[in-house]
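Posting for a labmate who doesn't have an account.
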Amino acid sequence: MRWTQTFIPTLKEDPAEAQVPSHRLMVRAGLIRQLVAGAYTYLPLGLRALHKAIRIVREEMDRAGALEILMPAIHPAELWQETGRFADYGDTLMKVRDRKGALLVLGPTHEEVVTDLVRNHINSYRQLPVIFYQIQTKFRDEPRPRFGVLRTREFLMKDAYSFDVDVPHLNQSYERMYQAYCRIFDRCGLKYVVVEAESGPIGGEASHEFMVLADTGEDALVECERCRYAANLERAEIGEGDTPPPALNEKQLRKVHTPGRSTIEQVSGFLQCLPQQMIKTLIYLADGEPVAVLVRGDHEVNENKLRRVLGASRIELADPDTIQRVTGAPVGFAGPTGLRLKMLADRAVMLISSGVTGANEADYHLVGVQPGRDFQPDRVADLRVASDGDSCPRCSGTLRLRRGIEIGHVFKLGTKYSAKLGANYLDEKGQSHPIIMGCYGIGINRILAALIETSYDAKGIIWSVSLAPYQVLVLPLNVANAELMRTAERIYRELMEQGIEVLLDDRDARAGFKFNDADLIGLPLRVVIGEKGLQRGEVELKWRHQAQSFTVPVEQAASRAASEIRSALQRLA
């Protein structure tokens, strides 16, 4: 492709609305343009890169034995109401009515639709296992679309769904998809970690996220410095290596007046104690029933852990009226001593030898509180959000807090959808069972953004060979020089004949301007044809990710460039 015959609207300045490198560089390099908040037009360079990601995903899904289908983006609301997710998704679910008044939704995901397909056409164990996948546009009405294509309202996703007769066969399907994901992200040139994860609104029994580590990532995770354990904060377990906080001088239980002080910060400042010497008492509703949850003052409750420990379907903080009713005090003054309520405590709470809690009375707290003496929880468990420096639950190492970009997520759904929608199969004895399902998603747009977030410099993007819009840029420095242009044209043609994707910068522009654009769009390998080099019978080759260039004879330029590209692709294969 010739630069003058395509559309690459590069920009010198960063867009004002861009907050992260991928957004800034995708706009500046002419890959995307925003239409409305959370919706982008992909321009020729961006679309070529997107198609490359799609091709890699499709090849590996096909290789893993998944069958490609294409399901509608618009769904009847009744289908979502059958599973209860119409209410669960709330305002995130985009809703429309057709001319007849029927309520429809724009699909953020397709569990309901694919399960409906299977319940109508698969009814025997002989038809299982099967894995369907699609690459389809999805819609979520994000309250704050931002960070370019990392968080949008319209996005492209590869979603796959496995259907099996039992859990052992589900595990086999899950492993096939897990390995396919590793191959996909390896081929894309992404540096990623696999973390244990929560299933969120998708539901299910087990899941893993594929994360690209980046300081700008929206997701928080912990990673052990010693072993390979990694998990997002929603899921992360904590080892039993908590260090007890220093004890208060107070050993006897005493009530103190704390007028108007209800927060950890206010009370610790007033009583001149540390937040970790305080016990925070939170009242939750577990499936509608109140329960007290105790964590250290500097810790936060992990509601996913709490939900699993309680075996509850729904967890939410109690409203002020409920808190007043069950504790006898307004918000901010609850405490475990004397509280007649089911009580769970985080493990770190039980290490406090003398602490501070609410007194279950407005404007009063207790000091000198000792777990076991002054209160006894019904259960002690790991209930808090992990933090930097916590002990690893798998070894004696230390957990470190990281930021990451989620690029893929795999779930073991079990019968969450098949049971509700009646997707059953008959076994060899003619007995009916719900089909066992798995779900596997990849954010295609996020692949590009995640690569750029971790592969750029002050000059622009640094593409991997497998995702770059073009693999080679042929850059003649003076298009007015006929001999120089003939050489550039010859190298350009020879590269195309060898199957190399090449862009010829045939613009009549200053060399510095062309070099700046070349670095900005970040194609992997650059072939520079200059007048002085041509006089010596040489051209310059330079990898975008390397500081130094090297020269080759003119007659070897195309073959050497092609060889370099093939070697780079083989390393990613």
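Reply:
Got it, the structure tokens are right above this. The longest helix spans residues 167-188.
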